[in-house]
């Protein structure tokens, strides 16, 4: 997990170099939200209702 944080930071820096920093931040925020939504069902205990 720690390695992926470094990879994410490197990708964010590369994206900011090619676009504006604001665009890079928005793209990384959207990617983070997408990953969170994809992983959330697997993190919940089976049979537990979401809060």
Mean pLDDT: 87
Distance between the termini: 26 Å
Strand content: under 5%
Helix content: over 70%
Name the poorly predicted regions. none
- The rounded Rg comes to 15 Å
User: What is the number of E strands?
Assistant: 0
**Overall 3D geometry?**
elongated
Major β-sheet profile: none
| Pattern of helices and strands | HH
Q: What class, by secondary structure content?
A: mainly alpha
Number of helices: 2
Summed up:
This protein has helices spanning 2-18, 21-43. It has 51 residues and is an all-alpha fold.
What does this structure look like?
- The protein has 51 residues and is mainly α.
- The chain has two helices and no strands.
- It has helices spanning 2-18, 21-43.
- The longest helix has 23 residues, at 21-43.
- The radius of gyration is 15 Å and the shape is elongated.
- 0% of the residues are buried.
Feature tags:
single chain, 51 residues
List the helices and strands and how they pair.
Blueprint: H1 2-18, H2 21-43
Helix pairs in contact: 1-2
């Amino acid at each position: 997990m720690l390695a992926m944080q470094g990879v994410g930071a490197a990708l964010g820096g590369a994206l900011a170099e090619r676009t504006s920093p604001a665009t890079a931040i928005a793209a990384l925020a959207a990617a983070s939200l997408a990953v969170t939504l994809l992983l959330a069902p697997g993190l919940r205990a089976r049979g537990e209702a979401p809060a």
